Amino acid sequence: MLAAVFSSRHTVYQDSEKGYVFVDRDGKHFRHILNWLRDGVVPTLTDSEYSELIREAEYYQLLGLIEGVSSVLNKRKEDEKSPAELTRTDIIKCIQSERVKFRGDLSLVDFSFACLKNVFFSRANLQCAKFRDVDAVGSNFHNATLRECEFTGANLRGALLAGANLQSANLQDASLIDCSFCVADLRSAHLQSADLTDANLEGANLEGANLKGAKLSNANLKGANLQRAYLRHVNLRDTHLEGAKLDGANLLGAIR
Predict the structure, then answer these.
(1) What angle do CA 88, 90, 95 make, to 5 degrees?
(2) Which of 73, 74, 76, 203 would you label with 93, given CA atoms 20 to 30 Å apart?
(3) pLDDT tens column, 204-236
(4) pLDDT digit string (tens) for 78-106?
């Protein structure tokens, strides 16, 4: 990459006195380039942002990144052409059955306002699915992928979410009473005003999660990661926090 910058193909601006070099490129996308160089993972961006990133990758002659972005764009086009396997009507018909099990790819499906009591979603891919105001009492989401899902106002009382990936999920105002979130990934999750009374979050990762106004009476947070979590004005008096990590957590006004 540095060889590309200092090759004769590009004009390099250098301070004649101190020797500083100014690279006139887009700083916004440079972080994506650095992350790709570190772990080889292509970032998730919009099509227009990918076009800009390709231009930057061409400047630095990063052929691997160009190929990776092109592959993502091609797959995105194919997915847009493919019709959905299940429509919202199909989903509603299915969940009216006596015993329901969902597996496979259900990403982006809208379940909002549906009755999902005791439905089996274990190990399903539900990324970015919508569960607004659903009644999902006793449902099984064990080891399911629920990244960026929306559960605002949902009733998940007694649901099993152990081992689930809920990174950046929105659970604001949700009823999560007696739920199991053991070793679940709740990094950067939105849990404002959620009711986590009697919930089991032992070993869960809540790094950077927002728990402002959440109810945590008798909640089990033993060994949980609450680093950089937002816990302002939360009542932690009856919460089990043995072994929990609270480094960098915002505890201003919290009751302990």
Answers:
(1) 95
(2) 76
(3) 999 999 999 999 999 999 999 999 999 988 999
(4) 766 655 555 666 665 565 555 556 667 88
Q: Are residues 148 and 131 part of one domain?
A: yes
Using one digit for the tens of pLDDT, what is the confidence trace for 69-79? 999 988 888 76
Alpha carbon of residue 55 to chain centroid: 28
Strands 13-14 and 21-22: antiparallel
Tokens of 23: 């690279």
What CATH code is carried by the domain that includes residue 32?
A: 3.30.710.10
**One-letter amino acid of 91:** I
* Domain identity same for 136 and 202: yes
**Domain CATH number, residue 200:** 2.160.20.80
Tokens of 211: 């728990």
- Predicted pLDDT of residue 98: 52
Nearest to 250 by CA among 221, 204, 211, 214: 211
Per the rule left: phi > 0, alpha: psi between -120 and 50, beta: everything else, 133 is left
Q: What pLDDT is attached to residue 37?
A: 84
Q: Which domain holds residue 161?
A: 86-256
**Do residues 73 and 112 both lie within one domain?**
no
* Residue 70: predicted pLDDT: 92
If one counts the domains in the chain, the total is 2
Tell me the pTM. Answer: 0.62
**Tokens standing for 150?**
């929306």
Of 27, 58, 81, the last residue of a domain is 81
Distance CA 96, CA 120 (A): 13
Tokens representing 162 are 């152990």
| Percent composition of the chain: helix, strand, coil (DSSP 3-state, to 5) | 20, 15, 65
Q: How many residues does the chain have?
A: 256
